[in-house]
Design goal:
Largest interface: A-B, 83 and 83 residues
Shape of chain B: globular
Number of helices of chain A: 5
CATH architecture of the largest domain in chain A: Beta Barrel
Radius of gyration of chain B: 20 Å
Radius of gyration of chain A: 27 Å
Structural class of chain A: mainly beta
Strand content of chain A: over 45%
Strand content of chain B: 35-45%
Oligomer: heterodimer
CATH superfamily of the largest domain in chain A: TonB-dependent receptor, beta-barrel domain
Number of strands of chain A: 53
Structural class of chain B: mainly beta
Number of domains of chain A: 2
Distance between the termini of chain B: 27 Å
Shape of chain A: globular
Number of strands of chain B: 17
Number of helices of chain B: 2
Helix content of chain A: under 10%
Largest sheet of chain A: 22 strands, antiparallel, barrel
Helix content of chain B: 10-25%
Chain lengths: 787, 266
């Protein structure tokens, strides 16, 4: 480890020493039409092939070159490339606005010169989603969803219908760090997993790191899903929205001061419970079932050097029966960010982040409530240092204060049926420091190397238990406020390399270690809002993963096709499971129910994408294995984890029939989840009980499904006959609108949601196996508009 | 209890969609069949027995469970009182003189087919049921039938001091109702309270008997795990207190309080 640090330092010093008689061109790149910052725009120097820069997540770039005359080209997929001639004899500030090709008439000829980002970047195991693509992919109830679309990428697997989670490279659902404008989102699902909390109208960019995550991220083992909200139109007022079968949404964006600041507010609400009035059952009629969410963001550029952002999310699910029972849950996040340019080479971002998740169950029939929450406060500093055209250094640090309220139960009336009981809060501090450099060596090799140091400290106040081998409390001690209970350190090296084989192909390799200090306990197979996040403690060690990956990337036919093959191997330490029959919620001694073991996962991912032409789409295939071993489960034998999927195939096709009509289809197929089915049965208390043997020794039936979607844009242009010349002129309409039709599960496959082994209703001495399938054919329709 | 409400919420959500249930056939592994032991000592006369049988493959619906005859079955307490149980019908062993006494630890010793099975359970004093009461409920998931449905609440006073565990067993006309109810006093300690017999629905004219059993922690864990497994949440064999990996089941010494009620029209 020491050597890695030393080598990195030497490399750095070397680099800095070289720079002399050089000047920097820097600035921001934005979208011409709405002023949104463009992330990942490539900046090339025509005269110096292989030299360039990329805009960061705030649209900022900085490129340092020797004195001279250059043609700088700004290019971005789907946008027109803009060349800029500059005589670089002093530092230059250049802000650029790129125009969107799609707003022009020639929709089918979307060309940008450099579309080979996939083979150029050193990132290994990264999936990006083009927000425009999402619009045309068919989904359940027509509710566009970034998380569901990401699950069509290789190595990313759906947790199944009605499941909150997704699995990345054999990792469990809690190993994904989901960030919305840097704020962690602890439960990313609505309606028990049928929808994600991310309203795609308010989202600008989604990136999923599934392999080697950059050093600026940490705290989860498998992936980082980095979601950025839109900044809002800084040019003019824009209103857009949609009306669907199950939900409606509305987004308003406008400048605060033109070209200096803007805001966006986006709201969405479902109304599934409207259908309940048709129910014959009185109680059902008075039931409620809906969710809503609200995204807000504002930004203001104080001057060339300072810019501030304020963003927030609030979402809530509500479920209730009359005055008998109520259940609501949701997230709230808030982020304040301050961008500051120390110089034209040193970009800083300081963030203050708040994140909150809670749920509340009201048993009104018996007059008591159950509630639980998590609350995080984070301070974070990230710096981008654009040393020279070959080196970009990122460094920074963060501190998070976590408060876990595992649960309380309280009467809502005096002299209730139970005692008010509260499981003590748990407190901890999670901090990190990191540095990472991206370095070009010659024109063929690019390295990214970094180190992340993290610390997790469990602090008081509280009564802290220790447990013996059988999970019984063996010791209890009291701690004062901020008194340290236990502290863990983690040193995580991150490394990735890209070697260009030729203009159209590259080889990449990576290694990453990561530490996870928070763990999700769930006693249902599909995840539920009441699943409990547990911090590392004196009894729970941090989970550690090491992952190596290699990949080959190739672009074919002038970047019309993108192909990649990637493979990975991952080992996991201190994996967590729990004893059979463990009570996970409202249990003060839940840590005694835990079992610790190890895990491993490996796989091969193939991806082929067609990016140009009337027909676009992709195929992805994953062959993988994910296993666990615990001393107290099946005598330590390796068993497949729930997320083990041998085969996983996704096909996506989008066919632009005409300028205004798009037909799309997706097909997914995957091996059924590993589950534990009974081997036998017996009778206890006159009731049939199932006998189980090995853990996850059986499989659910294979899952497959096809969806189709049709998007019809209403005419964007009016044809006006000029009275004087008789020529026909096309005038852009004020309101753009489109219809979206989709059919989920076209051929009505009855996929198994659950399989139960139960007594036959008419003869309890006999048993039967019953499969429940959720969605047969679900058609939906929605109308979207923008003006 | 939480699980029940969770399930209610999941089911209710699914109701709105075109969910469909069908019977299917699956090939299942049939290896490793086990002995099943169910042993109860109550603090009252009768109903103290040991049942021994064997598990059978899940898909076997042809025959009944194989009862294990010819076992030597002995129950002892920690004051060295010992009872040999007689096989009165195949696999069913009992002794009419056996009555459990509170605050004693009971052990079970079974020898059969050259195998030995042992278990221990502590008999906690019974907690008397104060009363049972009925209340009419609205049904959530079915179209309103004309038959009114009732719930029964079991009132009792929980003794002070954490660490008490209970089971509730409802019977209708002497037949035990399906479902397992096991709970601890985490939320009820020292309270005069009630608990709904939430697994069952009763109808007018039902003669209902409810047993409130004081059980030890291992029995609580066992039956709580059974109820979770039955809800389909966590498939797995509950941790048994019988010390032999070839057996499943439990041995329980229970303080037993019983009350009866006849459900009347409201």
């Amino acid at each position: 480890m020491k050597r890695i640090v030393l080598v990195s330092l030497l490399l750095l010093i070397n680099l800095i020493a070289f720079s002399q008689n050089k000047f920097t061109i820097s600035g921001n790149v934005k979208d011409l039409s709405d002023g949104e910052d463009l992330i990942g725009v490539t900046i090339f120097v025509k005269e110096l092939p292989g030299t360039g820069a990329v805009t960061n997540i705030y649209g900022f770039y900085s490129l340092t070159l020797p004195e001279g005359e250059y043609t700088i080209e700004y290019s971005f997929i789907g946008y027109k490339t803009i060349p800029f001639k500059v005589n670089l004899n002093q530092n230059v500030k250049k802000n650029i606005e790129l125009s969107d090709n799609a707003t022009e008439l020639e929709v089918f000829e979307v060309t940008a010169e450099k579309e080979d980002e996939n083979i150029r970047s050193t990132e290994v195991g990264v999936s990006k989603i083009d927000m425009k693509e999402i619009e045309s992919i068919p989904v359940l109830f027509g509710e566009r969803d970034v998380m569901k679309t990401l699950q069509l990428m290789p190595g990313v697997k759906s947790g199944g219908e009605g499941s909150a989670g997704f699995f990345v490279r054999g990792g469990s659902a809690d190993q994904n760090l989901i960030l919305l404008d840097e704020a962690p989102v602890y439960n990313a699902s609505h309606l028990l997993g049928f929808f994600s909390v991310f309203n795609s109208d308010a989202i600008k960019d989604v990136k999923l790191y599934k392999g080697s995550m950059p050093a600026e991220f940490g705290g989860r083992l498998s992936s980082v899903m980095d979601i950025k909200m839109k900044e809002g139109n800084s040019k003019e007022l824009e209103v857009s929205g949609g009306i669907g079968l199950i939900s409606s949404k509305l987004t308003v964006e406008a400048p605060i001061v033109k070209d200096r600041g803007s805001f966006i507010v986006s709201a969405r609400r479902t109304y599934a419970d409207m259908f309940l009035v048709f129910s014959k059952n009185e109680t059902q009629k008075n039931a409620s079932l809906y969710f809503y969410d609200l995204n807000m963001k504002a930004n203001y550029r104080i001057n060339e050097k300072n810019r501030v952002f304020l963003s927030g999310y609030f979402g809530r699910d509500n479920l209730g029966f009359d005055d008998l029972f109520g259940f609501n849950w949701g997230n709230a996040t808030g982020t304040f960010r301050w961008n500051h340019l120390f110089s034209d080479k040193l970009f800083s971002n300081t963030s203050f982040i708040y994140s909150y998740y809670n749920y509340k169950i009201s048993i009104e029939a018996a007059n008591f409530d159950i509630a639980s929450n998590i609350e995080d406060f984070t301070i974070k500093e990230d710096l981008d240092y654009f040393i020279n055209s070959n080196n970009t250094l990122k460094f920074g640090g963060s501190v998070i204060h976590h408060t876990f309220d595992p649960g309380k139960i309280a009467s809502t009336v005096e002299n209730g049926v139970l005692n008010d009981t509260k499981i003590e809060n748990r407190y901890s501090l999670e901090s990190a420091l990191y540095a990472s450099n991206e370095q070009k060596i010659g024109s063929l090799l690019t390295l990214t190397y970094g180190l992340r140091y993290s610390n997790f400290t469990q602090i008081g106040p509280g009564e802290i238990y220790s447990y013996n081998e059988d999970g019984q409390v063996s010791d209890t001690s009291n701690y004062d406020k901020f008194e340290q209970v236990v502290s863990y350190n983690g040193l995580a090296p991150r490394f990735s390399a890209k070697y260009s084989l030729n203009e159209s192909s590259s080889l990449k390799a990576s290694y990453a270690r990561s530490y996870q200090y928070l763990h999700l306990l769930s006693n249902s197979s599909s995840g539920s809002p009441t699943d409990a996040w547990m911090p590392s403690s004196n009894n729970i060690k941090p989970e550690i993963a090491d992952q190596v990956g290699v990949g080959y990337f190739k672009n074919l036919k002038k970047n019309s096709y993108e192909f990649s093959v990637e493979t990975y191997y991952k080992v996991l330490d201190n994996a967590i499971d729990y004893r059979t029959g463990a009570e996970v919620t409202l249990n003060a001694t839940v840590e005694g129910e835990l079992l610790f073991g190890e895990g491993r996962a490996y796989g091969l991912e193939l991806y082929l994408k067609k990016k140009k032409g009337k027909f676009t789409g992709w195929m992805s295939y994953t062959l993988s294995r994910s296993e666990g071993s615990f001393k107290d489960i099946d005598k330590g034998n390796w068993f497949p984890t729930k997320q083990d999927r041998t085969h996983d195939i996704s096909l996506v096709g989008i066919w632009s029939i005409s300028e205004r009509v798009k037909l799309s289809s997706t097909f997914v197929y995957y091996t059924g989840n590993a589950v534990t089915f009974p081997t036998g049965k017996y009778v206890i208390d006159n009731q049939t009980i199932n006998l189980y043997s090995e853990r996850n020794g059986s499989r659910m039936p294979n899952y497959h499904r096809m969806d189709i979607g049709l998007t019809i844009d209403n005419k964007k242009f009016k044809e006006i006959k000029k009275p004087d010349t008789g020529e026909i002129e096309k005038v852009k309409k004020k309101v753009e609108s489109s219809w979206n039709f989709s059919v989920y599960n076209v051929y009505g496959r009855e996929n198994a949601y659950s399989i139960t082994f139960q007594e036959q209703a008419n003869d309890p001495t006999k048993t039967e196996i019953v499969q429940l399938s959720l969605f047969k054919i679900i058609p939906s329709i929605s109308y979207n508009f923008r003006f | 209890m939480k699980q029940i409400f969770l399930i209610i919420s999941v089911i209710s959500f699914l109701l709105f969609f075109t969910s469909c249930e069908k019977r299917i056939d699956l090939d299942l592994d049939e290896a490793n069949q086990k002995y099943v032991i169910e042993g109860i000592v109550h603090d009252r006369m009768g109903d103290n027995f040991v049942l021994i049988s064997k598990t059978k493959p899940f898909n076997d619906n042809a025959s009944g469970l194989e009862k294990i005859s010819g076992a030597s079955v002995r129950i002892m307490d920690n004051l060295n009182n010992s009872y040999n149980l007689y096989e009165v019908e195949p696999g069913y062993y009992t002794d009419s003189t056996l009555i459990g006494i509170a605050n004693r630890e009971y052990s079970l010793l079974i020898t059969v087919d050259n195998k030995t099975f042992t278990a221990k359970s502590y008999l906690h004093p019974r907690v008397e049921i104060d009363s049972l009461s009925q209340r009419q409920t609205e049904s959530l998931f079915w179209d309103d039938k004309d038959i009114p449905e009732y719930r029964i609440d079991c009132y009792f006073t929980e003794p002070s001091g954490l660490g008490d565990f209970y089971r509730i067993k409802p019977f209708v006309f002497g037949e035990q109702e399906d479902g397992f109810i096991a709970f601890n006093d985490d939320f009820f300690d020292g309270l005069s309270t009630y608990l709904p017999v939430f697994e069952s629905i009763f109808y007018e004219g039902d003669s209902v008997t409810v047993q409130l059993l004081s059980v030890d922690e291992q029995n609580y864990r066992y039956f709580n795990a059974l109820s979770l497994a039955q809800d389909g949440l966590v498939p797995g064999n509950p941790e048994s207190n019988i010390e032999n990996e070839e057996a499943v089941g439990y041995f329980g010494a229970y303080g037993n309080s019983e009350e009866s009620i006849i459900v009347l029209p409201e």
